Amino acid sequence: MGRTVSRSARTGRFVSGTTAKRSPRTTVTQKINTGRSKKRRVHQSAITGRFVTEATVKRHPDTTISQDV
Asked: Is pLDDT at 35 greater than 70 in this prediction?
């Protein structure tokens, strides 16, 4: 079973759900599944929620999240 967490795109730290609702352009809320192997890195836009390329992450570091899944 998974759980939902929110993370700041600016700091990379976990934040509360209330903080995520106050700052939707700079936070990402995602469902975390247990038992993953974390073999690949993915990047996600905090503004749109879409997955983006590494080049986009370099251009917009304050509004993107990178994580191993």
From this structure: no
* Whole-structure pTM value: 0.62
**In the chain, how many domains are there?**
1
Cβ 65 vs Cβ 46: under 8 Å: yes
Q: What is the pLDDT of residues 41-66, one digit of tens each?
A: 899 998 888 999 999 999 999 999 88
- 51 strand-pairing partners: 44
Domain that holds residue 43: 3-68
Q: In this structure, are strands 14-15 and 3-8 parallel, antiparallel, or unpaired?
A: antiparallel
Q: Which candidate, 4, 42, 43, 9, places its Cα nearest to that of 23?
A: 9
Tokens of residue 10, six digits: 């600016």
